[in-house]
Amino acid sequence: xxxxxxxxxxDAFFASVEIRDDPSLRGKPLIIGxxxxxxGVVATCSYEARRFGVHSAMNIKEAYRxxxxxxxxxxxxxxxxxxxxxxxxxxxxxxxASQTIALDEAYLDVTATAKDWEGARLIAHTIKxxxxxxLGLTCSVGVAYSKTAxxxxxxxxKPDGYFEILTPxxxxxxxxxxxxxxxxxxxxxxxxxxxxxxxxxxxDLRERPEDAVRMLxxxxxxxxxxxxxxxxxxxxxxxxxxxxxxxREVTFQHDVSDYGLLRDVLILLAFCVEHRAKRVGLxxxxxxxxxxxxxxxxxxxxxxxxxxxSAVTIFEETSKLLEQVxxxxxRLIGAGLYNLSGEDEERQLTFDDLSGDVxxxxxxxxxxxLDGLQVRYGLDFAGNLEKLYHYEVLHKTVEYLRxxxxx
Length: 407
Fold this sequence. Notes:
Layout: E1 5-10, H1 13-21, E2 30-33, E3 42-45, H2 47-50, H3 60-66, E4 71-73, H4 77-92, E5 97-102, E6 105-109, H5 111-114, H6 117-135, E7 139-144, H7 147-154, E8 162-165, H8 168-175, H9 188-196, H10 202-207, H11 209-216, H12 218-227, E9 245-256, H13 259-280, E10 282-293, E11 298-308, H14 311-324, E12 330-342, H15 351-355, H16 362-377, H17 391-403
Parallel strand pairs: 2-4, 7-8
Antiparallel strand pairs: 1-6, 1-7, 2-3, 5-6, 9-12, 10-11, 10-12
């Protein structure tokens, strides 16, 4: 039986949630991300802001240059996550399998529940109506025979759009003369490489398939398949353990040369990573340290450890990595866990377990880290640690540390 897949994509999700909750923002160029006087990028923006050429991932200074009259706001990820949970609860009602791509986006396999294209159309319009009626938000929906075609369809009539692509021939007819970037997995760098080789449109890939495969290998073979409308990938439910890493990072408003301060920021990041790991029930067997220097050079350092989700271990290991890197001004710092697995998997015994030596409890070590921050900066996290996990609170706390008078 042919697959019937629906792709649902919210319209300017973060901005739409803020506009819903504050109607005075409606019709105005709203930009979610950093503020104009800060370092950072645009997370998303309203369609009014997009008319000025603002888009997600744009440097916030450039966004302000293009749209000085825009309304700039920090994101509230906890609010967006709560709304996302409500959205997916609605969408999943109609699918035999659901693959969450982001807070605001999902593939739904409705082959069994819809039974035919008419049933799929009914489900798609019901999803749009319920999303609007129950949550006050609009979404764009694509109905198609494959995942690639469904995603392409959902982007055709944004915002608040509906489109369907029922056959590979329909898909090819739609995209054949479009830029190669229309194809799934073609980003800016791949597109640039293809353009240099004379592949400008999907038609070019169809006419010179061997050249594409010779240049890009397996990826080129995949793009040729898409150019002919072939994509038999299944909707695969997302599992937290499929994530490659769990991490948190912050960008400083001014470069930091004090590596003692960077160690203290790693404490905050370690607690944030621990919170995320525990929330999805994962532990890691590796830690990563990420740095962006003032000259924008990025480095990542990692090391294998015993299985953990402990903030203490994450801090201790990333701070060791920090000692080993070149010490010069830093723009961004991040910490993370990788080699992820479920907490219920058997933990490997450590030398401490085997020796029977008495070591400080994890709770004591955690408290010692927090006590150190209180002594050095006057920060008291008693009963308030949960607030640290909020994007804005974390960044404000880091900036407070950065500006704190040195003794």
